Amino acid sequence: MQLRELGWNAFFENQFERYRNQNYSPMRIIRENREKYIACSEAGELRCEISGKYRFDTTGKANFPAVGDWVAGTVRPGEMKATIHALLSRKSAFSRKVAGQITDEQVVAANIDTIFIVTGLDLNYNLRRIERYLAMAWNSGATPVIILNKSDLCPDAETRKREVESIAFGVDICTLSAAQNIGLEFLNNYISPGATVAFLGSSGVGKSTIINSLIGTNKLKVNEVSDLGSRGRHTTTHRELLVLPNGGIVIDTPGMRELQVWGDEEGLKQVFDDIEELASNCRFKNCSHENEPGCAIVEALNNGTLDPGRLESFYKLKKEFSYVADRQTMKASAIEKERWKKISKIQKIYSRDYKDKL
Ligand code: GDP
Ligand code: ZN
Prior knowledge:
Layout: H1 10-16, E1 25-33, E2 36-41, E3 44-50, H2 52-57, E4 70-76, E5 81-87, E6 93-97, E7 105-110, E8 114-120, H3 127-140, E9 143-149, H4 157-167, E10 172-175, E11 196-200, H5 207-215, E12 241-243, E13 249-251, H6 254-257, H7 265-271, H8 273-279, H9 296-302, H10 308-357
Parallel strand pairs: 3-5, 8-9, 8-11, 9-10, 11-13
Antiparallel strand pairs: 1-2, 1-4, 2-3, 4-5, 6-7, 12-13
């Protein structure tokens, strides 16, 4: 396997310079399980562990290797094993908060160029969910692209597409039918040798079907979603990073597949419906629940019916989500600016050429 086929490029090459004389080799993580790793290198697939010094020097889960990461390691060729000594900086990182008391960040997948957000044009279709996935994708540093799958089940797929356009400013969107093999060639705009893509979306939207058609086999087990609302289980034991026959790299980790269990603002409302309910009883609609008269939240805190810890965690989550949403808006407007720059450049060339012809 050539490193370039695995996604190696100048960005990583430059970082690797300082390890050259240490007899380290570059390798990309293709699977991780409780700090046991499988990496792909020029020498082939290697079973890896991190060095004691790495572990000792590293704080925070996010600084440990994840699927898609490039690391520097020493290879023991006879055994096809390696020791990981350093993590190269990431171009992008899709992460989640680790559940529990400490809000630690865990990287689910690293160095993704394009994140395909997959939605089914059936009962799964939900603009709010697409917004949430978009926020997560922007936040990772990868570029999101929206796939509206199962177009065969939707008589007005184009209307849906326009609807999605209205909430996903500057994002590429396509409708396709993976099952009927219609429109999949659109993905080739993003899949090329050395480029890494990943698929994000709820269970049953057709991610495996799409990936299978890219691989050209039925390597991934496709869920049989027989009746409405049922959720199939995925029992994949494959590598979580694979190189496609025609070039291009797909990352498919359970961490990205099982996203529907994460909290979101909609979920937030559901989880904290008591607080929403209380807030609706405040005298002022825009009450900040600090010192306004007639504040139902303050009253509930005072008479002990609302736990201050609960209110605090509600605020914390809300803030986290507005931060993500802000990043999305910022990045979207930057892209829009870039797009207008390009358009005005084209216009200039166009009008110049046009003048020449006069
Ligand atoms: P995943 O959970 O996102 O990986 O979804 P799967 O690829 O396992 O697909 C779930 C179900 O949807 C399977 O029964 C597929 O055959 C079906 N499916 C996938 N793509 C399409 C499509 O374009 N049209 C229709 N009608 N069904 C599809
Ligand atoms: Zn209030």
